[in-house]
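Duplicate of earlier report; Angiopoietin 2a input re-posted below.
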Amino acid sequence: MLHVDLLVLSFCLGLGTGYTKSSDTTVGKRQYQIQNGPCSYTFLLPEQDSCQNQYNDQVQRDGPIDSDESAQRLEQLEIIMENNTQWLLKLENYIQDSIKQDMVQIQQSAVHNHTATMIEIGTNLLSQTAEQTRKLTNVEAQVITHTTRLERKLLENAISTNKLEKQLIVQTNEINKLSDKNSFLEKKVEEMEEQRQVELKTLREEKEQLQVLILRQTAIIGELEQQLLKVSSNNTVLQHQQQQLLDTVNNLIHTISTGTARGESTLAITTDTPTTYTDCAAVFKSGNTQSGVYTLTSPNTTLEVKAFCDMETEGGGWTVLQKRFDGNVDFHRTWQEYKKGFGEPSGEFWLGNEFVSRLTNQQSYKLRIQLSDWEGNSGFSQYDQFSLDSEAQNYRIHLKGYSGTAGKVSSIGQPGSDFSTKDADNDKCVCKCSQLTTGGWWFDACGPSNLNGMYYQQGQNSNRFNGIKWYYWKGSGYSLKSTTMMIRPADFSGSL
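Output:
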């Protein structure tokens, strides 16, 4: 066996193997180098003396070498080479095992060092983590506080929002109600506008009819004026004849009074003073029980008026104040005309406010209003007490004790209203009711009645705000066919 001296061993961490053979200047030794990764191992091996001697002998010989001896030497060399190779393999395995152990130790040391470093790093990380955790805890506390405040604000906002929603719902309902009312009013306005258009159209037609009527009446007035001239002429002749008759009668009386026929007593002729009546009740009491036109004298004056007396209705004795039945008389008159009266007692007429005021302030009177419509129905309204104030009080009306069939309540407003005409506005409305609804009446604020309004014929009497109306019997838009207002003393008995 060969003895190997290990002269130099150098290593470093790494993997991989290599093998190199080289000569050395050192006498009698061989150098072997093994490369294992970045590490290298160098071995110096002694030379075999026998081999050297034999080799030297071989060199020094001048003669040929024996073939057997050469073969033996070659065989020995091969054996030696094989042994060296095996030894080298073992050495290589040893070196590799050593290297593995060293590597394990080195790795363990590195792992230990790395573990220490990791522990230190972990400690630092734990410290930093604790610090960060503390900061995060503070931040979390702040966030929780801020979140709590936000939640409170959100709760308050939610409560406010609920209140606002409720208010919004209430306002929405109010708006819807107002919208419904507005729609209803718009429909009413449209209906009123349509009605107004119809009324305007009717008024235009009536205006045309009135213009035609005025033309005819103008012609009639011309004819009447001519007849009046003739009557005036005839009246002059009659007055002359009457004067002649009076002279003849006076002469006859004088002759009779101065005659001496057989001493008989003188014939005296006296003239009776004519009887006067203040109302139709007095006419009835005097024995005149036929309905017709009579002359009445205003109380405490010599003023005479023609009036129509109704001697048939409810025992008779009624003095007629107003009558409407054909529309031939215009009732849209002035204050003075309503004061004195107008029209013909046998037709449509107004007796006169001044006469009625004087009459009703002498004693207590009843008022009866008779009405008829275009369908053949009739009704009446009666008041147990009726009077008119003087002109200074605008002929204010006073009524008490209502009864009748033309409405459950009175259509003349109470307490008393002042009388108004187109030129004397005494009502309680800024619209001037007399001009708006036509005629003179106790309007109050354009109240529920006006028996002196425009007269409309059948077929044109509906939806007339300015017609002859008695609201609590036929409504505000129905114009009646005929009306009669009449009075008599409250204590009238109806017996002669």
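The first strand starts at residue 5 and ends at 9.

Merging into the original ticket.
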